[in-house]
Every structure is written in C-alpha cells, then in structure tokens.
Design a protein that fits this description.
two-stranded antiparallel sheet; mainly alpha
Length: 145
C-alpha cells in the first residue's frame, strides 16, 4: 500500500482546518498558501471530502471551508479512505465477499490479514485532533536565538 499525494494532502488540509478551527469558514487560497499546495489540487480534494460529509462550504467573500464535525470525530483512516479507497495491502482483502479461489488455502493470507489489521488499528486510532495537537506542539518548539 502506498498513499498517494491526494491522500497526504487531504490529511494536511484537514489538519490545517483543525488548527484554524474557530467556527468561521477558511478560504482555500489561505490553506493553499500555508500548506504550499496548488489551489487547483486542493479544489479536487475538497470536493471529495465535502461529498463525504467531512467539510461544510460557503460561497462569497466570507466563504471557504470548515470541518463539519469536531477534529476528535475524524480519524486518519476516515480521511484516507475517502481519498484512497481501500487501505488493504492486497486485493483479496478489499471486500468481505472475497472472490479469490484459494483464499481458504492461501499460505500468505494470515500474513496479509495481520498486516491489514495493524494498518487499520493505527490509522483508525489516530484522530485529526491528535495530529493537529502534535503539529501545534512541534511548531511551537521551532524557535531560534
């Protein structure tokens, strides 16, 4: 499994919204400037996140985007599944109705299942709030004399 740029940028976008979460809408151009991500690319990502119900949007001079829920209600896994689809390391774990003919006799399925369980435990155990708090703490320690 390799997370694409879209997945990585979606996490950064959501962390930025969490960090600037004051109830007001945040202009996408401001996020683009802070995150150094193309505005056009962010527009594609917010469409997916909005359709999934993760973002609220408003048009106009005071418009932009904001989180639909509290940062603690989103996990990294939730966000990545919207942009990446399945996080399964192999195709035969993509769905419950497995079509593989040798699934029950596969010599590697236990390995892949174990890896997938670890991936899900990790990405679903970290909230947007956790990532935002960690980033804020990391940024506050960035000083020079």
């Amino acid at each position: 499994m390799k997370i694409s740029t879209k997945g990585r940028y979606a996490l950064r976008l959501m962390i930025d919204l969490a960090e600037h979460n004051n109830g007001k809408y945040i202009a996408l151009k401001d996020i683009s400037a802070r995150q150094k991500i193309s505005l056009k690319y962010l527009e594609q990502i917010v469409i997916q996140l909005s359709k999934a119900g993760f973002l609220e949007s408003a048009r106009g001079s005071q418009g932009g985007y904001r989180l639909a829920k509290k940062p603690s209600k989103y996990t990294a896994g939730d966000i990545l599944r919207v942009t990446e689809g399945s996080l399964a390391p192999v195709a035969c774990l993509d769905s419950k109705t497995n079509k593989c003919q040798i699934y029950d006799k596969c010599s590697t399925i236990d390995f892949w299942t174990g890896l997938y369980d670890l991936i899900l435990k990790y990405v679903d155990g970290i909230t947007l709030e956790n990532m935002s708090d960690k980033h804020i703490n990391k940024s506050s320690n960035d000083y020079s004399i």
